[in-house]
Design goal:
Structural class: alpha/beta
Shape: globular
Distance between the termini: 35 Å
Number of helices: 9
Number of domains: 1
Bound molecules: zinc ion
Helix content: 25-40%
CATH topology: Rossmann fold
Order of helices and strands: HHEHEHEEHEEHHEEEEHH
């Protein structure tokens, strides 16, 4: 039995019971997603759907929550074991494959953590989550780990991931799931000979992943006294001095919150919403009327993402 005393005294039994009832999908169990899954398990999340198609490779070990002992095993099995080693009562569905082939597993979850690197997979997940009215938390780590961002996408309340990416990602955004799928590993070469995954330290990845886990936890705590109001839908973290807001240098180890508005002409959430509201006029669809918040700050577009 896991001794939850130190967590229970902070959150209280009712909140822990609430967390234990939630099912969280973690899609992508690389350097970031693997960390998020284990961190959530250590706060009391008990039900997981883990999805990853990759094998733990020797070059992953310097940037992964698992180590040499698990090289050669599917990351989904490795991370599943790491969760069970913390909490033997965890209920884990492990999918060793691409999420694109297994969207049905999202039908039974309460929330989605997006740990994939490929923008193509993020766009596919965006549509799958919108269709199921699932809140999803996305994270991106910038080139050489110099910073990163975490955004929470509430279906039809504010931007979808496609809206968000069109505002914050420069040049590398493709709405087609097929042509942005460069899911190469750290250290491998692209066809043009450049490094597909940037060099970077796990501690810089984990700065972003830890925020992704905290933001996810906060969403899971909805309806409990432990839930905090967050200032905006996006937090951008600096590991190096970063010009996140124009004309202002954000110092290392600090962050800026920015609210990214829905793109009123977004075909992804616009079309899906129309389709859904024709089928049934849901409360969510009505609430989406407020989707156009004003983006008062000018955000420096990073557009550079780490592939892991
Ligand atoms: Zn959209």
């Amino acid at each position: 039995m896991t001794d939850w005393d130190r967590v229970k005294r902070l959150l209280g039994q009712d909140t822990m019971d609430h967390l234990a009832r939630q099912t969280v999908a973690v899609v992508g169990l690389g350097s970031g997603g693997g960390y998020v899954a284990v961190a959530l398990a250590m706060t009391g999340v008990r039900k997981f759907v883990l999805v990853d198609d990759d094998i733990l490779d020797a070059h992953n070990v310097v940037r992964h929550i698992a180590d040499q002992r698990d090289v050669g095993r599917p990351k989904v099995a490795v991370v599943g074991d790491l969760i069970r080693h913390r909490n033997p009562e965890a209920e884990i569905q492990q999918i060793h494959g691409r999420i694109e082939d297994h969207f049905a597993v999202l039908d039974t979850v309460d929330m989605v953590v997006v740990g994939v690197d490929s923008e193509g997979s993020k766009f596919s997940l965006n549509e799958a989550c919108l269709e199921r009215h699932l809140t999803a938390v996305y994270a991106g780590v910038y080139e050489r780990g110099e910073g990163g961002d975490v955004v929470t996408i509430y279906p039809y309340k504010g931007p979808c991931y496609a809206c968000w990416a069109s505002a914050l990602r420069e040049g590398n955004v493709s709405p087609s799931p097929d042509d942005a799928d460069e899911d190469l590993d750290y250290g491998q070469l692209r066809a043009d000979g450049t490094l597909a995954a940037e060099p970077g330290l796990w501690l810089d990845v984990v700065r972003v992943a830890n925020t992704q886990a905290s933001v996810t936890l906060n969403s899971l705590l909805a309806g409990t006294p432990a839930r905090r109001d967050l200032p905006a839908n996006t937090v951008i973290l600096a590991s190096q001095p970063l010009e996140i807001l124009e004309g202002h240098l954000t110092p290392p180890f600090s962050a800026e919150w920015v609210d990214i508005a829905r793109n009123p002409s977004c075909l992804v959430c616009g079309t899906l919403q129309t389709r859904q509201s024709e089928a049934d006029i849901s409360l969510d669809a009505l609430l989406n009327e407020t989707g156009e918040a004003d983006t008062s700050q000018s955000v420096h577009k990073s557009g550079k993402q780490n592939h892991d």
